[in-house]
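Fold this sequence, please.
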Amino acid sequence: MSGEPDRVVDVVVVGAGAAGLYAARDLKRAGKRILVLEARDRVGGRTLSETLPNGATVDLGGQWVGPSQKRVQKLIQEYGLPIFPTFREGKSVLCLGGERTTYEGLLPPSTLEVGEELRGAFALIDEIGSRLSTEAPWETPHAAELDGKSFFSWTRETVRSDFARSALDGLAITLFSSDPRELSFLHVAVYIASAGGFDPITATAGGAQDSRFAQGFQSVSKALAGELEQELLLESPVSRIAQDAEGVTIASEKTTVRAARAIVALPPALAGRLDYSPSADAADADGDRHQAPGHL
Protein backbone atom coordinates (compact mmCIF):
# COMPACT_ATOMS: atom_id res chain seq x y z
CA MET A 1 0.00 0.00 0.00
CA SER A 2 1.70 3.17 -1.18
CA GLY A 3 0.64 6.80 -1.15
CA GLU A 4 -1.37 8.81 1.33
CA PRO A 5 -4.51 7.25 2.87
CA ASP A 6 -7.92 8.76 2.15
CA ARG A 7 -8.77 8.91 5.84
CA VAL A 8 -7.02 8.72 9.19
CA VAL A 9 -8.91 7.44 12.24
CA ASP A 10 -8.18 5.83 15.58
CA VAL A 11 -9.85 2.48 14.88
CA VAL A 12 -11.16 0.75 11.76
CA VAL A 13 -13.79 -1.95 12.25
CA VAL A 14 -14.08 -4.49 9.44
CA GLY A 15 -17.60 -5.93 9.32
CA ALA A 16 -20.96 -4.37 10.20
CA GLY A 17 -22.54 -7.30 11.94
CA ALA A 18 -23.77 -6.89 15.50
CA ALA A 19 -20.30 -7.47 17.01
CA GLY A 20 -18.55 -4.93 14.79
CA LEU A 21 -21.25 -2.31 15.22
CA TYR A 22 -21.32 -2.78 18.99
CA ALA A 23 -17.56 -2.27 19.20
CA ALA A 24 -17.71 0.77 16.92
CA ARG A 25 -20.55 2.36 18.86
CA ASP A 26 -18.73 1.98 22.19
CA LEU A 27 -15.51 3.37 20.71
CA LYS A 28 -17.36 6.38 19.31
CA ARG A 29 -19.02 7.00 22.67
CA ALA A 30 -15.53 6.90 24.22
CA GLY A 31 -14.49 9.73 21.91
CA LYS A 32 -12.52 7.73 19.36
CA ARG A 33 -12.51 8.46 15.64
CA ILE A 34 -13.76 5.29 14.00
CA LEU A 35 -14.78 3.93 10.62
CA VAL A 36 -16.75 0.75 9.88
CA LEU A 37 -16.15 -0.93 6.52
CA GLU A 38 -18.79 -3.41 5.34
CA ALA A 39 -18.69 -5.45 2.12
CA ARG A 40 -22.46 -5.80 1.77
CA ASP A 41 -25.06 -3.14 1.06
CA ARG A 42 -26.60 -3.62 4.50
CA VAL A 43 -25.73 -4.05 8.15
CA GLY A 44 -26.54 -7.11 10.23
CA GLY A 45 -24.05 -9.75 9.10
CA ARG A 46 -25.58 -13.15 9.76
CA THR A 47 -28.90 -11.61 10.76
CA LEU A 48 -31.30 -10.63 7.98
CA SER A 49 -34.96 -9.71 8.52
CA GLU A 50 -37.47 -9.39 5.68
CA THR A 51 -41.05 -8.13 5.66
CA LEU A 52 -43.67 -10.32 3.94
CA PRO A 53 -46.53 -8.89 1.85
CA ASN A 54 -48.88 -9.34 4.82
CA GLY A 55 -46.65 -7.15 6.99
CA ALA A 56 -45.15 -9.96 9.07
CA THR A 57 -41.40 -10.01 9.65
CA VAL A 58 -39.38 -13.18 9.14
CA ASP A 59 -35.75 -13.83 10.02
CA LEU A 60 -33.53 -15.45 7.40
CA GLY A 61 -30.56 -15.72 9.77
CA GLY A 62 -30.22 -15.56 13.55
CA GLN A 63 -33.55 -15.04 15.26
CA TRP A 64 -33.73 -16.05 18.94
CA VAL A 65 -32.71 -14.39 22.18
CA GLY A 66 -32.68 -15.78 25.72
CA PRO A 67 -32.54 -14.28 29.22
CA SER A 68 -28.94 -15.38 29.78
CA GLN A 69 -27.73 -13.31 26.80
CA LYS A 70 -27.15 -10.25 28.94
CA ARG A 71 -25.50 -7.99 26.37
CA VAL A 72 -28.31 -8.40 23.83
CA GLN A 73 -30.91 -8.00 26.57
CA LYS A 74 -29.25 -4.71 27.53
CA LEU A 75 -29.51 -3.49 23.93
CA ILE A 76 -33.18 -4.54 23.82
CA GLN A 77 -33.86 -2.35 26.85
CA GLU A 78 -31.70 0.55 25.65
CA TYR A 79 -33.29 0.79 22.20
CA GLY A 80 -36.80 -0.33 23.21
CA LEU A 81 -36.83 -3.28 20.79
CA PRO A 82 -40.05 -5.33 21.15
CA ILE A 83 -39.71 -9.09 21.62
CA PHE A 84 -42.27 -11.87 22.05
CA PRO A 85 -42.17 -15.45 23.42
CA THR A 86 -41.30 -18.22 20.99
CA PHE A 87 -44.29 -20.40 20.10
CA ARG A 88 -44.16 -23.49 22.32
CA GLU A 89 -47.44 -25.32 21.83
CA GLY A 90 -47.77 -28.79 20.32
CA LYS A 91 -45.36 -31.64 19.73
CA SER A 92 -41.93 -31.84 18.13
CA VAL A 93 -41.43 -33.70 14.86
CA LEU A 94 -38.50 -36.01 14.08
CA CYS A 95 -37.79 -37.33 10.57
CA LEU A 96 -35.09 -39.98 10.67
CA GLY A 97 -34.39 -42.79 8.25
CA GLY A 98 -37.52 -42.01 6.25
CA GLU A 99 -39.74 -42.28 9.33
CA ARG A 100 -41.69 -39.42 10.90
CA THR A 101 -42.25 -39.39 14.67
CA THR A 102 -43.88 -36.81 16.94
CA TYR A 103 -42.91 -36.45 20.57
CA GLU A 104 -42.94 -34.11 23.57
CA GLY A 105 -39.94 -32.80 25.51
CA LEU A 106 -36.34 -32.16 24.51
CA LEU A 107 -35.39 -35.69 23.46
CA PRO A 108 -37.25 -37.88 20.96
CA PRO A 109 -38.68 -41.22 22.10
CA SER A 110 -36.09 -43.93 22.42
CA THR A 111 -35.20 -46.82 24.57
CA LEU A 112 -34.21 -46.06 28.13
CA GLU A 113 -30.65 -47.09 27.31
CA VAL A 114 -30.33 -44.64 24.41
CA GLY A 115 -31.84 -41.82 26.49
CA GLU A 116 -29.30 -42.46 29.22
CA GLU A 117 -26.57 -42.51 26.60
CA LEU A 118 -27.53 -39.08 25.32
CA ARG A 119 -27.89 -37.60 28.78
CA GLY A 120 -24.48 -39.00 29.66
CA ALA A 121 -22.94 -37.38 26.56
CA PHE A 122 -24.55 -34.03 27.42
CA ALA A 123 -23.28 -34.24 30.99
CA LEU A 124 -19.76 -35.14 29.82
CA ILE A 125 -19.62 -32.15 27.46
CA ASP A 126 -20.81 -29.90 30.31
CA GLU A 127 -18.14 -31.34 32.60
CA ILE A 128 -15.36 -30.82 30.02
CA GLY A 129 -16.64 -27.31 29.34
CA SER A 130 -16.59 -26.45 33.04
CA ARG A 131 -12.83 -27.04 33.07
CA LEU A 132 -12.16 -24.80 30.07
CA SER A 133 -11.43 -21.10 30.05
CA THR A 134 -14.12 -19.51 27.90
CA GLU A 135 -11.99 -16.36 27.63
CA ALA A 136 -8.81 -18.13 26.48
CA PRO A 137 -9.65 -21.79 25.79
CA TRP A 138 -6.34 -22.38 23.98
CA GLU A 139 -4.54 -21.88 27.29
CA THR A 140 -6.45 -24.74 28.96
CA PRO A 141 -4.49 -27.97 29.56
CA HIS A 142 -5.13 -30.52 26.77
CA ALA A 143 -6.67 -27.79 24.57
CA ALA A 144 -4.62 -28.87 21.55
CA GLU A 145 -5.81 -32.46 21.95
CA LEU A 146 -9.47 -31.38 22.16
CA ASP A 147 -9.04 -29.01 19.22
CA GLY A 148 -7.47 -31.75 17.11
CA LYS A 149 -10.54 -33.94 17.50
CA SER A 150 -13.74 -33.37 15.54
CA PHE A 151 -17.14 -33.47 17.21
CA PHE A 152 -17.97 -36.39 14.92
CA SER A 153 -15.03 -38.47 16.10
CA TRP A 154 -15.75 -37.60 19.74
CA THR A 155 -19.35 -38.81 19.47
CA ARG A 156 -18.21 -42.08 17.88
CA GLU A 157 -15.87 -42.63 20.81
CA THR A 158 -18.50 -41.68 23.40
CA VAL A 159 -21.86 -43.18 22.33
CA ARG A 160 -22.54 -46.55 20.74
CA SER A 161 -26.09 -46.55 19.36
CA ASP A 162 -26.83 -45.27 15.86
CA PHE A 163 -29.78 -43.30 17.22
CA ALA A 164 -27.68 -41.43 19.80
CA ARG A 165 -24.99 -40.71 17.20
CA SER A 166 -27.60 -39.39 14.75
CA ALA A 167 -29.11 -37.21 17.47
CA LEU A 168 -25.72 -35.67 18.27
CA ASP A 169 -24.99 -35.14 14.57
CA GLY A 170 -28.33 -33.33 14.31
CA LEU A 171 -27.43 -31.23 17.32
CA ALA A 172 -24.23 -30.08 15.59
CA ILE A 173 -26.16 -29.10 12.47
CA THR A 174 -28.84 -27.30 14.52
CA LEU A 175 -26.52 -25.37 16.84
CA PHE A 176 -23.58 -24.70 14.51
CA SER A 177 -25.02 -25.05 10.97
CA SER A 178 -22.03 -27.26 10.28
CA ASP A 179 -21.19 -30.85 9.53
CA PRO A 180 -19.95 -32.48 12.80
CA ARG A 181 -16.84 -33.67 10.92
CA GLU A 182 -15.84 -30.03 10.41
CA LEU A 183 -16.32 -28.97 14.05
CA SER A 184 -13.51 -28.84 16.56
CA PHE A 185 -14.61 -30.58 19.76
CA LEU A 186 -12.86 -27.81 21.73
CA HIS A 187 -15.01 -25.23 19.96
CA VAL A 188 -18.20 -27.18 20.71
CA ALA A 189 -17.34 -27.53 24.41
CA VAL A 190 -16.38 -23.87 24.80
CA TYR A 191 -19.45 -22.66 22.89
CA ILE A 192 -21.82 -24.67 25.07
CA ALA A 193 -19.97 -23.71 28.26
CA SER A 194 -20.23 -20.03 27.31
CA ALA A 195 -24.01 -20.40 27.22
CA GLY A 196 -24.08 -21.99 30.67
CA GLY A 197 -24.39 -25.61 29.56
CA PHE A 198 -26.64 -27.85 27.49
CA ASP A 199 -29.92 -26.94 29.17
CA PRO A 200 -29.70 -23.17 28.60
CA ILE A 201 -28.50 -23.49 25.01
CA THR A 202 -31.14 -26.03 23.91
CA ALA A 203 -34.19 -24.95 25.92
CA THR A 204 -37.02 -22.75 24.67
CA ALA A 205 -38.69 -21.34 27.79
CA GLY A 206 -35.92 -19.67 29.77
CA GLY A 207 -33.27 -20.87 27.32
CA ALA A 208 -31.52 -19.56 24.23
CA GLN A 209 -34.69 -19.94 22.12
CA ASP A 210 -36.91 -18.14 24.64
CA SER A 211 -37.97 -15.12 22.57
CA ARG A 212 -37.91 -13.51 19.13
CA PHE A 213 -37.80 -9.94 17.85
CA ALA A 214 -41.05 -8.41 16.60
CA GLN A 215 -39.07 -6.44 14.00
CA GLY A 216 -36.53 -9.21 13.39
CA PHE A 217 -33.09 -9.75 14.88
CA GLN A 218 -31.56 -7.41 12.31
CA SER A 219 -33.27 -4.58 14.23
CA VAL A 220 -30.44 -4.84 16.78
CA SER A 221 -27.81 -4.02 14.15
CA LYS A 222 -29.98 -1.31 12.62
CA ALA A 223 -30.34 0.35 16.02
CA LEU A 224 -26.56 0.27 16.56
CA ALA A 225 -25.94 1.58 13.04
CA GLY A 226 -28.25 4.51 13.79
CA GLU A 227 -25.48 5.95 15.94
CA LEU A 228 -22.85 5.49 13.23
CA GLU A 229 -24.29 7.15 10.12
CA GLN A 230 -21.16 9.20 9.38
CA GLU A 231 -18.79 6.40 10.38
CA LEU A 232 -20.28 3.55 8.33
CA LEU A 233 -19.24 2.76 4.76
CA LEU A 234 -21.25 0.02 3.01
CA GLU A 235 -20.34 -1.85 -0.18
CA SER A 236 -16.70 -1.46 0.72
CA PRO A 237 -15.11 -4.92 0.95
CA VAL A 238 -11.69 -4.92 2.58
CA SER A 239 -8.96 -6.67 0.63
CA ARG A 240 -5.78 -6.04 2.62
CA ILE A 241 -4.62 -5.07 6.11
CA ALA A 242 -0.98 -4.02 6.52
CA GLN A 243 0.36 -3.70 10.05
CA ASP A 244 3.51 -1.90 11.14
CA ALA A 245 4.97 -0.53 14.36
CA GLU A 246 2.78 2.60 14.27
CA GLY A 247 -0.56 1.08 13.28
CA VAL A 248 -2.44 -0.42 10.36
CA THR A 249 -3.41 0.54 6.83
CA ILE A 250 -6.64 -0.95 5.50
CA ALA A 251 -7.44 -1.08 1.79
CA SER A 252 -11.00 -1.54 0.53
CA GLU A 253 -12.63 -1.07 -2.86
CA LYS A 254 -13.76 2.43 -1.91
CA THR A 255 -11.06 3.81 0.32
CA THR A 256 -7.70 3.45 2.03
CA VAL A 257 -7.65 4.15 5.76
CA ARG A 258 -4.85 4.60 8.25
CA ALA A 259 -5.57 3.75 11.90
CA ALA A 260 -3.86 2.97 15.18
CA ARG A 261 -5.91 -0.20 15.58
CA ALA A 262 -8.12 -2.53 13.55
CA ILE A 263 -10.91 -4.83 14.69
CA VAL A 264 -11.75 -7.63 12.26
CA ALA A 265 -15.33 -8.55 13.19
CA LEU A 266 -15.85 -11.20 10.54
CA PRO A 267 -16.62 -14.93 10.74
CA PRO A 268 -13.33 -16.88 10.78
CA ALA A 269 -13.85 -18.22 7.25
CA LEU A 270 -14.19 -14.69 5.85
CA ALA A 271 -11.49 -13.16 8.04
CA GLY A 272 -9.08 -15.80 6.76
CA ARG A 273 -9.55 -14.64 3.17
CA LEU A 274 -8.12 -11.18 3.84
CA ASP A 275 -4.55 -10.43 2.81
CA TYR A 276 -2.56 -9.62 5.96
CA SER A 277 0.89 -8.08 6.01
CA PRO A 278 2.72 -9.47 7.87
CA SER A 279 0.95 -12.81 7.73
CA ALA A 280 -1.37 -13.35 10.70
CA ASP A 281 0.74 -16.33 11.83
CA ALA A 282 4.14 -14.96 10.89
CA ALA A 283 6.85 -15.47 13.49
CA ASP A 284 9.28 -12.76 14.44
CA ALA A 285 12.98 -13.28 15.07
CA ASP A 286 12.33 -14.29 18.68
CA GLY A 287 9.84 -16.94 17.70
CA ASP A 288 6.81 -15.02 18.97
CA ARG A 289 3.80 -14.77 16.73
CA HIS A 290 2.50 -11.44 15.48
CA GLN A 291 -1.12 -10.87 16.33
CA ALA A 292 -3.60 -10.62 13.52
CA PRO A 293 -5.13 -7.11 13.33
CA GLY A 294 -8.44 -8.54 14.53
CA HIS A 295 -6.81 -9.40 17.83
CA LEU A 296 -5.32 -5.99 18.53
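Residues 283-296 have pLDDT under 50 and may be disordered. The chain has two domains: 7-63+218-295, 106-201.
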